[in-house]
Amino acid sequence: MDRREFLSFKKTSLQEDFGKPKIERRTTTGLAKYSGTWTKQEVAHLLRRTLFGPKLSEINSFAKKTVSEAVDSLLDTTNYVFNPPINHYQNQTADAAVPYGSTWVNAPLNVALEPNRKYSVKAWFWSLPAKQTTSIMEKMILFWHNHMPTQMQDTPVASLCYTYVKVLNDYALGNYKTLLKQMTVDPSMLYFLNGRLNTKKAPDENYGRELQELFTLGKGPNSKYTEEDVKTAARVLTGFSINFTTTPFSTSFSSANHDTTDKTFSSFYNSTKITGRTGVFAGSLELDDMLNMILSVDEVSKHICRKLYQYFVYFDIDSNTETNVIEPLAKIFRDNNYEIKPVLKALLESEHFYDNWNRACVIKDPVTHQAGFVRQFEMPFPAATDYEANYQVYALGSYYGQITQMNLGDPPSVAGWEAWYQMPLYHKIWLNSDSLPKRNQFQDYLMMTGHKVKSFNFIVDPWKISNQFSKPKDADSFIQEASDFLLALPLSSSQISNLKEILLPGGIPDYNWSDEYRAALDSGDPNHANSLATVTSKMRNLFKSIMNLSEYQLS
Amino acid sequence: MKRRLFLKAAASSSVLPISLNGMSLRTFGKESFFSVLGKRANVSDRVLVIIQMNGGNDGLNMVIPIDQYSNLSKARTNILIDQKKVLALNGTNKTGLHPKMDGLQNMFNNGLVNTIQAVGYPQPNFSHFRATDIWNSASDSDKVVTTGWIGRYLDKRYVNYPKDYPNATMPDPVAIQIGSMVPLTFMGPNVSMGMAISDPASFYNLLDGNTGGSLNTPSDIELAYIRELTQQTNQYASVVKMAASKGKNLSTKYVKGNGLCNQLKIVAKLISGGLKTPVYMVNIGGFDTHSDQTDSADTSTGSHATLMQKLSEGISAFQDDLKLLGASDRVVGMTYSEFGRRVQSNASGGTDHGAAAPLFVFGEAVQPGIIGKNPTIPNTTTVNDNVPMQNDFRQIYASILQDWFEVPSTEVKALLDNQDFNTLPIFKSNAASIEDFADMVTQIQISQVYPNPTSDFIHLKFSSDGGGMLSISVFDPLGNRVIYLEPKVYGIGEFDEILDLRGLRKGNYFVQLSSPKHQVTEHFMVY
């Protein structure tokens, strides 16, 4: 047995071992509004789950809000700005139609530039979480991207990769039914699931199946649509395709390719009949009817709420959770005509969400890990006008996502990433003997060495963080504030004393740290230069060591 | 021919390597080439164990200058160790060991310890952090170097680390820190060459806290999963665990509750288990003895005495274990601390941050004895007085690299910031002998320093019997080198140099005359 086999064997056995349920869930909390203590711990819990790497300043400012104000603020999109990908590639391949730094998404197709634009859109997609504002938007874009994926590598042109993300952004916090409709006819989706080939002469069942099996009803025991329903749904959707004559490309509908006969569904849908239509709006009108029909089944709201629950709370849904959380949440979803915000508000304000039982138990997905790292350390990016360098930094993040099992923009299948659906392991799938060291490598690299792009070094500035600590000159307090900031659960006293060895090796008295820190801040101190180097290096080592703890992988 | 003269002659001709069966040998100090050859381990099997004493060790209470007792007793009224209790060393009545170091005393008397006096560097730094970084990186006092001396060496020895490692030739970690943190010492130009092991049976146990805790909540379960995975994932976990399970400890001298013993026990076990790792580092903390370093009733006991005892117990048990395990010919150890402490004790019964201090290199490969003279303790001292350096710490590094790991001298120079540091006769393989270094009287001698006390200038009268390059340094009370006359050639005879002292503050000063091998130091006062 060679080394690799040995390790993968161990990995599998370990995952199997941990895959077995070890405990009975014992919490009965539900959607009642949380009224417990509201300290930075609770705030950090909320922000860790709803943002990518909350900053210290965000935790501090949210601690001054009430629970409702905090959640409302995360859900508020009034001032949200969505910037499309740009021409960062001018210095490599000149783009006659788009100036350097301007967006190419509305520019005509230029086959020679497609590789650059694909690179651009992939890098840009990773930059959204890394550079997000204090909004739940990017977490929801990722949620829907996983829920209704397409693959950028197979999308014929880069501009359609962008319009797919734009649809997610437009409706991520809007109305689920509208999102479904827009995504059904999105060119990228019409490509990915063959909708563009679905005609009355040659119906293609692909999308009709996934719409029900994955995007709405799910595969649970109460999802009893039939094979015939799949075929019927496909007939409803005939005629949609992509118009390659517009700039940018758009959705088209051909009434000639549309099946104009009536479509009757199974008894699961109460034998609903959708009247066959003709004309340019036929497809759209029948699609509306079909989505209304599917959404009239309560299971849809439960399926979406379960997925939201697994995304924001924990993968395991026991009977208590189903009864106390999922069912009332699904009712809120239906009662609000499938608006998404009321569901998120109820969940994120609930006593169940803040239940100790549900804290620090989610293994970070790779984008949350990596974009979250970049964001929480407030890493400085290259000068804003050096678009090329900025995109190279984004591409680094995108690359690390790929090698740690999360290629943003290209989920492995139409079901999304396994970690969000595959029983029994769920999010444990993110971590194995290959991906965990790479996560640590990413952290260590940007903390200790930095990634050089042209003349810029993309590296953490530890002072950006320590300057926000209340008592950085106090070694114990420094360690406490750093671990509270970086970890979702408290450290043991032995872990803390090990970390203290970094700041004060060999049990030397605490004032040595205070003195060094003071001298490092005081440019007039005779030891300033030395102290600055020493303290900077110690802070890097401390942050690195905290993040090398297993705890850092949990949110 | 007297040995010293033989070596002098050898210096010009037979420093050239002697080739024997295609193996390149340097002239060995004390034993015939053949007996040494028979005993010495292959270079690739040699191990260095570095014992870091964190906090700044009070060297004057460890290696005790018996011939300075009258002045020492004035400077250290409250912590002075009863002279009768000082442990005697074979071959000298001038220097002894702390009363609690009987283990090390036995090793010394059995020829297993080389003691180097007053090790430091020209401009001492008194910050724990900075001083530690200087020692670990081997930098000049005023330079920040972000790599370690061992890390740079290992980077050259193991080309393309970590990309091409582990491999068939080197399946094991290239450097191991017993503890939670990998030190700067092991930092290579690109990556750290070291790994930290707290317990070879259970990786990251110390760092990660106790594994196998309760599995009561979802968070417990997920955390346990990641910890378990972390242990399995470490690419060296299996080889280290295997070495730990194959390896043994045979000595009964390890003392329970002595943390250094526990760490060295792990090292001995890994060595005997077949790990090819060439460098280990262990730590003993608590040396920052600003107060109550001795018990007032019995100054041979107290916190510093306990540390001395632990150090001595640890080293002697480790050496005993290596002997029983059959590995004692291929392992050497060295101790160091980021600085020594002041000459004067303070009112709290402790000592404050100082400068130079003695250190030990031990093992069968060392020349037994003491390199350098006892520090001179002035008749009256002030609170800031320090022990001036005699030997640069990088001379010890150069000796280890060149005479233990057999790195060519040009490469040694490259590893030490392109500076020349003369090797010391620490190892039997060094061309010079320890007696040669000790036998200073007829080599160079300071005959007079006058006027003393003085103010603006001083005459330094000295003699040299061999001629050659001599340099002159003056150290201020803090241990800073304030005057340095670059080495120049003097003939045989008597010389008189006048040193300009204008601008120096009042206090105890030391003038030091140095040849490549010898140093003589005299004390004078500026008023």
CATH architecture of the largest domain in chain B: 3-Layer(aba) Sandwich
Q: What topology, given as strand order, has the largest sheet of chain A?
A: 1-2
The total number of structural domains of chain A is 2
- Which term fits the overall shape of chain A? globular
Number of helices of chain B: 14
Q: Regarding CATH, which class of the largest domain in chain B?
A: Alpha Beta
> How would you classify the quaternary structure?
heterodimer
Shape of chain B: globular
Q: Percent of residues of chain B in beta strands? A: 15-25%
Number of domains of chain B: 2
The CATH topology label of the largest domain in chain B is Alkaline Phosphatase, subunit A
SS field, number of helical segments of chain A: 24
Interface with most residues: A-B, 61 and 49 residues
Low-confidence stretches of chain A: 1-12
Question: Structural class per helix/strand content of chain B?
Answer: alpha/beta
Proportion of beta-strand residues of chain A: under 5%
Distance between the termini of chain B: 48 Å
Helix content of chain B: 25-40%
Explain what the structure shows:
- The complex is a heterodimer of chains A (555) and B (527).
- Chain A is mainly alpha-helical and 555 residues long.
- Chain A has 2 domains: 1-192 and 297-449, no CATH class; 463-553, no CATH class.
- Chain A is built from 24 helices and 6 strands.
- Chain A has helices at residues 3-19, 40-50, 56-62, 67-75, 114-130, 137-147, 158-171, 176-184, 187-192, 206-216, 227-236, 282-295, 298-312, 319-335, 340-348, 351-354, 366-376, 387-403, 435-449, 462-466, 475-486, 493-503, 511-521, 528-548; strands at residues 240-243, 250-253, 263-264, 273-274, 451-453, 456-458.
- In chain A, the strands form 3 sheets. Chain A has a two-stranded antiparallel sheet. In chain A, strands 3-4 form a two-stranded antiparallel sheet.
- In chain A, α5 crosses α18 (387-403) and α14 runs antiparallel to α15 (340-348).
- The model of chain A is unreliable at 1-12 (pLDDT under 50).
- Chain B is of the alpha/beta class and 527 residues long.
- Chain B has 2 domains: 43-206 and 239-438, Alkaline Phosphatase, subunit A, CATH 3.40.720; 444-526, Immunoglobulin-like.
- Helix content of chain B is 27%, strand content 23%.
- Chain B has 14 helices and 21 strands.
- Chain B has helices at residues 3-12, 33-39, 69-75, 102-109, 128-137, 149-157, 205-208, 218-233, 237-246, 259-272, 303-325, 393-404, 409-415, 434-438, and strands spanning 18-20, 23-25, 47-53, 63-65, 87-89, 92-97, 113-120, 175-178, 195-197, 279-284, 331-337, 357-362, 369-371, 391-392, 444-450, 457-464, 468-475, 481-490, 493-500, 507-514, 519-526.
- In chain B, the strands form 5 sheets. In chain B, strands 3, 7, 8, 9, 10, 11, 12, 13 and 14 form a 9-stranded mixed β-sheet that branches.
- In chain B, a hairpin with a 6-residue loop joins β15 (444-450) and β16.
- In chain B, α4 (102-109) packs across α11.
- The longest helix of chain B has 23 residues, at 303-325.
- Residues 1-38 and 202-212 of chain B have low confidence and may be disordered.
- Classes of the chains: A mainly alpha (555), B alpha/beta (527).
- Chains A and B meet through α1, α19, α22, α23 and α24 of A and α5, α7 and α8 of B.
